[in-house]
Amino acid sequence: MSRSRPLSPHSPPRPSPARAPGRKPWPSATAPWLRRRRAPRQGVVTLDRQHLYILPSRAGLGFALLLLAMLLTSLNYNISLGFALTFLLGGIGMACMWQAYRNLLDMTVAGASAAPVFVGESAAFSLRVAGVAGDDAPVRIGIEATLPAQAGAPPASLSLARGTAGTLTLRLPTSRRGWLALPRVTLSSRFPFNLFRVWSYADLPLAALVYPLPEAGAPPLPFATQADEDGASTLVSDDGTDQLRRYRSGDPLHRIAWKHSARTGRWLSRTGQSGSQPSCWLEWHSMPPALGNEARLSRLCAWVLAAGDAVEIGLRLPGVEIAPGRGGPHRRACLEALALWPGKPGQPAPESPR
Q1: How far apart are the first and last CA of the chain?
Q2: Which of 126, 124, 129, 111 is nearest to 166 (CA)?
Q3: Beta bridge partners of 145
Q4: Which pLDDT score, from 0 to 100, does residue 234 have?
Q5: 3-class SS at 122?
Q6: Separation between Cα atoms, residue 59 and residue 190, nearest integer Å
Q7: Which of 276, 273, 270, 262 is nearest to 223 (CA)?
Q8: How far apart are CA 174 and CA 125, in angstroms?
Q9: Which pLDDT belongs to residue 248?
Q10: How far apart are CA 90 and CA 201, in angstroms?
Q11: Which of 162, 237, 302, 348 is the most exposed place for a label (fewest CB within 10 A)?
């Protein structure tokens, strides 16, 4: 009988035995088919029989141990009423298992909306949950939805009447700007009696846009002076009700802006023109060089919010330029450009992670 000689430190490694040509390798833990991720059809996930899971809860395990103890006692002492009570409670437990399974069966889940938020706020994802329509449709009671990041937090729950739909709102904390995709949602139910837990998963293509955090105590808007017909520069007053220009010889005393003259150190007069303000360009390169990228985005975000609807603002970022404008859509476009920089606004939201 031949013995295998020990390998010396300088001996070459032994070749691994060849795998049979028809034998498949063992599946790894990251195999795609083990993730059981399914794409929603037209944005809707249906909780069918193949994707529902059920296990007894702690109360259900205690109930099963109680039934086992009652059965052993009835067998030992030959108690007829004990057998009857044990089988009656067992039948009730089986009925509870079927009702718990039926509570989620054929329910549909779809992404409704995700409102944009600022960094540090909680992003709210709204899900539309609906049951099947029909006279024999079950009443959905105690439907719960949780996220992986909400371990220990109270779940969002609702109950649905026969053939109706409802909305579940899930909140996810934000820590950085950009798109925040909704992770896998776990839908579960413990109705009735909390003896069994039924759950399923939903991967929905829903994402919320996270804006930069506005800078606290940001400096005022950088209004650029404009030259009028006489070559004198004009700027906007702080209250936005009048425009200021350099003092000219012969201007009446009631036209002099005493407060602004004292603050700027030069004589200024009010022009009497109100209601229109010059365009204000918010430029990346006009800020101090010591500010980092995120600090600049925070200041620009604070300026966009401070402008409101009364001031026309334009935005210039490296590789992105938005023409001056005003109003809600223009403000949202500027905030979207700040959130997605160095990308460009209008990019599609990422898909939910697997």
Answers
A1: 54
A2: 129
A3: 156, 187
A4: 52
A5: strand
A6: 11
A7: 276
A8: 12
A9: 79
A10: 29
A11: 348
Q: In the chain, which residues have pLDDT < 70?
A: 1-38, 135, 151-152, 223-243, 272-278, 344-349, 351-354
The pLDDT of residue 34 is 37
347 φ/ψ angles, rounded to the nearest 5 degrees: -70, 145
DSSP strand pairing (280-283 vs 313-317)? parallel
Percentages (nearest 5) of helix, strand, coil residues in the chain: 25, 30, 45
Check if the beta carbon of residue 313 is closer than 8 Å to that of residue 303. yes
| pLDDT attached to residue 132 | 81
Single pTM value for the model: 0.72
Residue 303 and residue 312 in contact, taking contact as beta carbons nearer than 8 Å = no
Longest dimension (CA), the chain: 122
CA atoms of 71 and 78, how far apart (whole Å): 10
Exposure string of 91-130, with b = 16+ CB inside 10 Å and e = fewer, is: eebeebbebbbebbbebbbbbeebeebbbeeebebebbbb
Question: For residue 265, what is the DSSP state?
Answer: T
In the numeric block, which tokens belong to residue 39? Answer: 């794409």
The answer for residues whose C-beta is within 8 angstroms of residue 311's C-beta and 6 or more apart is 221, 240, 277, 280, 326
Mean model confidence pLDDT for the chain = 81
pLDDT at 141 (0 to 100): 92
